[in-house]
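In this section we walk through a basic example: taking a raw amino acid sequence and producing a predicted 3D structure, encoded as discrete structure tokens. The instruction is simple. Fold the sequence below.
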Amino acid sequence: MELSLEAIISLATLFIGSGGGAFFTWRYMRRKAKAEAQTAEVDAAKEMQGLYKQMLTDANEYLEDARNKVEGLRQERDFYKQERDDLRGQVEELRKEFFAWKATAGKENSDLSVRVEQLSRKVEAMRPFMCGDLTCKKRKLVTIEEAEKPSKKK
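The resulting token sequence is shown next.
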């Protein structure tokens, strides 16, 4: 069997053409698969980045809401502290007024007791000069009892 130059060229073109085509097709498919894998990785990374951004946004909203609640509670606490301090001031003022009144009332009570004792002595001194009969020229002794004193019943 003799191979002619044309047969050799035909065979060489067949092997080179099909082998080269297969080689380039294989390289193209490998690059395409690698590019698709990279694209999928990039898409997954972007999706994860979006999820992280959403998580951060949610966490920031939660923290802001918590800060607002804490600030509201602080304002409420300060209001109640101020109210408590005001009430303490009012109680202290009322306490001072009460003790001032108590001192005044005690002094007035002691003054009234002294005055009652003085009047009792005057009544006792006037007893011999009192008469029950207003037309009588002779004075009769009138017994003056301690009126309106509650009697102690046993």
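Looking at the output, two observations stand out. The chain has one helix and no strands. The chain has one domain: 5-129. In the next section we compare this with other chains.
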